[in-house]
Fold this protein.
Amino acid sequence: MPALRNCVPAFVVFILIVAASIGIGVHQVLGFAVSSAVQRDGEVRMRHWAGYINNRLPDLEEIIVTGRPTAEQLQQLEIMREVGNVFKFRLFAPDGTLVLISDEASTRVSEDSVGQVNLRARDAFQTGQIDISVKNGKGLQGQPDVYVESYMRAHNIKGESVGAFEIYVDQTKMATFLHAIFGWAAAGLALLGSLAYLIPAFAFLQRNADATRAENTISYLTEFDPLTSLLSRHSFTERLDQEIDQPDSHLSAGAVIFIDIDNFKAINDEYGHQGGDQFIVHLANAIKSQVGELGYAARFGGDEFTISLPGISEKGLRKICENILREARKPALCGNQIITGKISIGAHLNHHNSTSEDLLRKADIALYNAKNSGKNRFVLFNEDMAHQLKSRRDLERRLHRAHDRQEFELNYQPIIDSKTSRIAGFEALLRLPDGSGGYISPDRFIPVAESIGLISSISKWAIHEALSTANTWPGTLFVSVNLSPRQFEDGNLVNTIKAAVDQTGFPANRLELEVTESLFLGNTESVDSQIKELKRLGASIALDDFGTGYSSIGYLIRYGFNKLKIDRSFLLAHEKDPDKLHGVLETIISLGHGLGMCVTAEGIETAGQAKMLGGLKCDQFQGYHFGKPMDTDSVAIALLQSTAKKMAGRKPAPAEMAATGAKRNTG
């Protein structure tokens, strides 16, 4: 017995050693099992997340190529980071160059890190293998206790590899769950067998439950817009296609509507993105309240919405659209701020079988027409709009081609000194060949050039060309160039004029810059400073088309124009009612002289008009009676004729100058 008692402590120690050894072994084995389960679960989550990215962000390749995601793309990426326990990700180009980072702080382009090459990202793209590892984040700021880091290929919507992701998945919950269960295994060897079976089973169930939740979230985000709860673009077009394909579809007598928020960027700029989101929700609620059970609606893009109303009449369609317009104008609350905005609506009422693409295209054309007609309105599609849009697109392509190939031309129309009847200068007029031997009217192409952002570049060329040509004229002649309000918006106008003057060596005091009254409807403070800078350069400023806009005397006084140009419409009106218009013209000329301005009359086509204006002391004449717009060679001929007549001691006849430019005239 004593021997037995002596053996007990040793046996207990042995048991304890064995138990400890088993416990250590179990701990190591279970630790490996936990790590493997966490890693496998993380891989499943990342695969689901990558699939979600492919479905929700079709322009992923564009982000990788440009490295400059739009605000809307950044917003989508923010939403994507919150799916499937992903708390951070980084996007790389195929060569491993970092494109952008998304973490709890923001989704952004990292200016400090862009350009660095990540070898693991590059290898993942080249091999197609997933590089995955489990990390311990305890004690690290901004990191969960347990997370999985992996590198895998990024694909576009066609399944093509376009880059690589580095994805971080928070697995703290999973690891805690597994450790809590596995911890009981270390309590005794007797439970080891059962735990060896139960633990993977529990892990499998937990993984499946999380995967199911992730799939449900992804499915919801694929079908619905998370901000407005309206259908997503994909769901809307899919449902529209299904309705059209049904044999008894009512859509043949229904409508498709396109809605866009007017000046949405201004709302974001003034109230922030939170305010922009609140107005989007406000509009979505207005749409829901009017559509109800009559149809279905979707958030089609950032600030675009679509509605399908099967079986609705034109009267019903107009009523719903007018109601949505009215509801959208009501103020929306965002905290303590009141947000107001307006929308434009285009709709197509379908009268025959068509495809969803065609229905949406026609509704979009109507929306485009509503925007161009002043916004804040509803427009119903008709076929003329499609023809107008095609004509507009053709003109845009012509402008781009002419801009790229430098196919624009300048014509010059003489401006006559009323006292000497000699040429005082020329107005440079921009011309766009139509490709068939004729010219496209400036009234058509200049507004389009302004809207597509080409006018500043075109005008820069025109100014330089006009000064280069005018440099060949006698030093007493000036050249007048028209300016677009868009050039003042760019803020580069003064530098453009100064560069042209410096490069051509043309004296700035012989340069006249023409502006219209529409210029003063925008940021007048910026316009004021730029006009002062231009006058300091030595250029003179002329107010063109006076009398067709607001004709404010305040503008004349404030900006101190050097010249006032009377619009041709006054002479046309004078032909119909000479008694009344004679006094109006006399008043305008007296006003200009009273403010120290030279006065030019445009559109003079007869000797009688010139005589009448001369009697009113008008300083300069311009019009077909004195000369049509002419090319550079014709200008040289006209100047030679003027010089010859001057040397002969007689004034040049207007008909002679007019005939000089007749061969290249576009009006």
Remarks:
- Confidence is low (pLDDT under 50) at residues 1-8, 10-15, 662-667.
